[in-house]
Design brief:
279 residues, alpha+beta, Multidrug-efflux Transporter Regulator, Chain: A, Domain 2, Multidrug-efflux Transporter 1 Regulator Bmrr, Chain A, 9-stranded antiparallel β-sheet, 3-stranded antiparallel β-sheet, 8 helices
């Protein structure tokens, strides 16, 4: 038998002595001999096969407790089932990471739009591409109540079953909808909230596309200024002979870090599709 002291066994396998002691404590791999006088631990070179299996199973995403259970069961059929389940877990994690990557790209784009945004007192005409949203009916007019009610609305949106697998970063880019029938009457009435989703996101209901087209837009740097911006936009449309041709969307571009106060601090873009009235 080729006996190796713990330090040499650890170095030979690219792990620490502390790791070997942990494996021993958990019953994964025990020394073949422990000197009674010195307490020194010795391993058989053939035990490297056990370490290779532990490292292999860790690489497949299993934790040490699960690896120990597989060792104790020593059931090849059950091991196959475990590996199939682990494959499904990894696929789910990859999907979640892909969502997170796309959310980061959207957040970066939102910050770039914030940096390029004009002064909040100006109405600008923009051509906006088609976008995809998940909308949620709250039955509560966002503009009839304060931020406390708005927070409750957002809690309901986040709890929606269809959105449970979305990263939290998606919820920093939300908004509200004033439908065309209310917008053309200059009514601040919005009972639907929304968040942007990707093409891959599937839901049996609630999916809607914001059409591409020409939009009149205003920007503001707080929720407290949002209503004022919408009213200014309505006035501008009337004064400059525009016609509202679709729903008005109030979109949170970015949320600023909230450190010294409770309420949300956000940069908002109000947008409504229009066309010039015929003369």
């Amino acid at each position: 038998m080729d006996k190796l002291p713990i330090g040499k066994m650890a170095k030979l396998n690219g792990i620490s002595e502390q790791t070997l002691r942990l494996y021993d404590k958990m019953g994964l791999i025990t020394p073949c001999e422990v000197n009674e006088q010195t307490g020194y631990r010795y391993y058989d070179i053939k035990q490297c096969a056990q370490l290779d299996m532990i490292q292999y199973m860790k690489a497949l995403g299993m934790n040490l407790a699960e690896i120990r259970r597989r060792f104790e069961e020593n059931d090849i059929q059950k091991m196959r089932i475990v590996l199939e389940n682990q494959k499904l877990n990894i696929e789910q994690k990859m999907k979640e990471l892909d969502y997170a990557k796309k959310a980061l790209a959207r957040a970066i784009e939102s910050y770039q739009r914030y940096e390029a945004a004009p002064d909040g007192n100006h109405v600008i005409l923009e051509y906006l591409q088609k976008r995809r949203i998940f909308r949620f009916e709250t039955r509560v007019n966002c503009y009839s109540y304060g931020m406390d009610t708005y927070e409750h609305i957002l809690r309901s949106l986040k709890k929606n079953a269809a959105l449970q697998n979305l990263p939290i970063s998606y919820f920093c880019n939300v908004g509200s909808i004033i439908r065309k029938r209310h917008a053309i009457r200059n009514e601040l009435w919005a009972t639907e909230v929304f968040l942007f989703v990707d093409e891959e996101f599937v839901s049996p209901e609630g999916i809607e596309e914001i059409p591409e087209g020409v939009y009149l837009c205003m920007y503001c740097d707080s929720f407290q200024k949002e209503e004022e911006s919408i009213r200014k936009l309505f006035s501008y449309i009337k004064e400059n002979d525009y016609e509202i041709v679709g729903d008005l969307f109030s979109e949170v571009l970015i949320e600023f870090p909230t450190v010294t106060h409770y309420e949300r601090n956000a940069f908002i873009k109000v947008q409504v599709p229009v066309k010039q009235k015929s003369k």
